[in-house]
């Protein structure tokens, strides 16, 4: 059944793109498939567009224009789940920026950026409205709990008073010579005393539990790996590091509860990075494909920063952001995360992290310095341990 649903969503996406390309009316198609306008479709759109850009780079800009048109229509579509509609539109806009760079296509880049800003603002409005409703529900629930707790405490006090009175009466009766009729009355009073005592215990247990909030483990952490920084460049990439050890060190920090998201940014078409494939899959890290269209711009850093800020605004449960990079360009990102009330953890090679980035991080996790190889006069390679 899951495969069947995925196939139906894939077919729906293809129908949408075909209708857009042929300038057909797509509103009836959207209205008859409201249930398919969901977050899964947004993820599917991201993957499909990235794959097509990689497979057909000559047609990338034409594909991008179709995606922009589709995103614009869905962004303005009022039916269905508005939050999901915006996620689909944002997915389209963000993916298109892979080819619609400011340098290559300044006009298209400007249009997409403006649409993206509007979509972000609309999503933030929905998020704020949902948070306000949740806070109101929480206040109402807490008020009901307080009322019930107060009522139970009153009953508890009454039960304690009745127990004290019964205790006094039983003690007085036991001091006197009584006949069988009084003995029966005493037995009845003792039974009533025991029932009240049990009720008191139950009430005390209930009032205790209502005032104690259970600890709930939350997926509160997102990790972002700058692979180019870890490999120390592209010319002669260093692969002598352990992503598993890095993840373990992060999990052992007190701020980290559970890891919700892990993304690793690199040009994964580089065959030398295949050595990382098994570890990436084993640890559940999402490999984000990055194409650099200009040597003057680091596309991986830009995409990482965009993804971080998007998650900071859209996922309130994410409170800890881990940046595995020593690049000083991320210092501004860390400061912006602090404005959103987030905790920032830096993770990089000791001695190779930018001092400003390290100073603005709430915590720094060092990675053992890599063993690199340098050419010797005899043209042989020997390992060198960086301290």
Explain what this protein looks like in three dimensions:
The protein has 387 residues and is α/β, with parallel strands linked by helices. It has three domains: 99 residues; 70 residues; 167 residues, 5'-nuclease (Rossmann fold). It contains 13 helices and eight strands. The protein has a six-stranded parallel β-sheet, with helices on both faces. Strand 2, helix 10 and strand 3 form a beta-alpha-beta unit. Helix 3 runs parallel beside helix 5 and helix 4 packs across helix 6. The two termini are 55 Å apart. 23% of the residues are buried.
Summarize the structure.
With 387 residues, this protein is α/β, with parallel strands linked by helices. It has helices at residues 2-21, 27-31, 39-55, 60-75, 82-96, 106-174, 180-210, 227-230, 243-251, 277-282, 299-314, 331-339, 355-360; strands at 219-226, 258-266, 286-289, 320-324, 343-349, 363-367, 371-375, 381-385.
Strand and helix layout:
Elements (H helix, E strand, L loop, with lengths): L1 H20 L5 H5 L7 H17 L4 H16 L6 H15 L9 H69 L5 H31 L8 E8 H4 L12 H9 L6 E9 L10 H6 L3 E4 L9 H16 L5 E5 L6 H9 L3 E7 L5 H6 L2 E5 L3 E5 L5 E5 L2
Parallel strand pairs: 1-2, 1-4, 2-3, 4-5, 5-6
Antiparallel strand pairs: 7-8
**What percentage of the residues does DSSP assign to strands (E)?**
5-15%
Ends apart, CA distance between termini? 55 Å
Shape-level CATH architecture of the largest domain: 3-Layer(aba) Sandwich
Q: What is the N-to-C order of secondary-structure elements (H for helix, E for strand)?
A: HHHHHHHEHHEHEHEHEHEEE
Radius of gyration: 31 Å
CATH structural fold name of the largest domain: Rossmann fold
Percent helix among the residues? 55-70%
- The structural class is alpha/beta
Oligomer: single chain
CATH homology superfamily of the largest domain: 5'-nuclease
Helix count from the secondary structure assignment: 13
Using the coordinates above, name the CATH class of the largest domain: Alpha Beta
Largest sheet: 6 strands, parallel
């Amino acid at each position: 059944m899951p495969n069947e649903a995925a196939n139906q969503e894939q077919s729906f996406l293809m129908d949408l793109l075909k209708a857009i390309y042929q300038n057909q009316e797509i509103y009836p198609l959207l209205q008859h498939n409201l249930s398919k306008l969901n977050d899964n479709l947004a993820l599917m759109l991201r993957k499909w567009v990235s794959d097509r850009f990689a497979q057909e780079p000559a047609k990338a800009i034409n594909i991008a224009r179709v995606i922009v048109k589709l995103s614009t229509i869905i962004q303005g579509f009022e039916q269905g789940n508005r939050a999901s509609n915006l996620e689909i539109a944002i997915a389209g806009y963000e993916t298109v920026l892979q080819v619609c760079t400011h340098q290559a296509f300044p006009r298209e880049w400007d249009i997409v950026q403006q649409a993206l800003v509007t979509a972000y603002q609309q999503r933030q409005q929905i998020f704020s409205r949902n948070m306000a409703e949740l806070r109101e529900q929480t206040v109402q629930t807490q008020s009901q709990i307080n009322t019930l707790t107060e009522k139970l405490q009153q009953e508890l006090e009454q039960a304690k008073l009745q127990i004290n009175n019964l205790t006094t009466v039983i003690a007085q009766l036991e001091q006197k010579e009584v006949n069988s009729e009084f003995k029966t009355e005493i037995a009845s009073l003792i039974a009533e005393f025991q029932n009240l005592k049990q009720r008191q215990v139950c009430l005390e247990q209930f009032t205790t539990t209502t005032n104690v909030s259970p600890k709930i483990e939350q997926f509160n952490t997102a990790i972002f790996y700058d692979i180019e920084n870890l490999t120390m460049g592209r010319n002669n990439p260093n692969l002598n590091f352990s992503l598993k050890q890095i993840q373990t060190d992060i999990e052992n920090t007190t701020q980290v509860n559970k890891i919700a998201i892990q993304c690793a940014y690199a040009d994964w078409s580089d065959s030398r990075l295949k050595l990382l494939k098994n570890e990436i899959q084993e640890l559940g890290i999402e490999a984000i494909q990055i194409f650099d269209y200009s040597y003057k711009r680091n596309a991986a850093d830009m995409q990482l920063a965009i993804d971080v800020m998007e998650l900071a605004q859209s996922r309130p449960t994410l409170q800890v952001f881990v940046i595995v990079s020593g690049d000083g360009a991320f210092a501004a990102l860390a400061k912006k995360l602090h404005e959103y009330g987030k905790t920032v953890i830096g993770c990089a090679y000791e001695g190779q992290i930018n001092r400003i980035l390290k100073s603005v991080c709430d915590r720094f996790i060092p990675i053992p310095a890599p063993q690199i190889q340098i050419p010797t006069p005899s043209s042989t390679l020997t390992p060198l341990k960086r301290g």
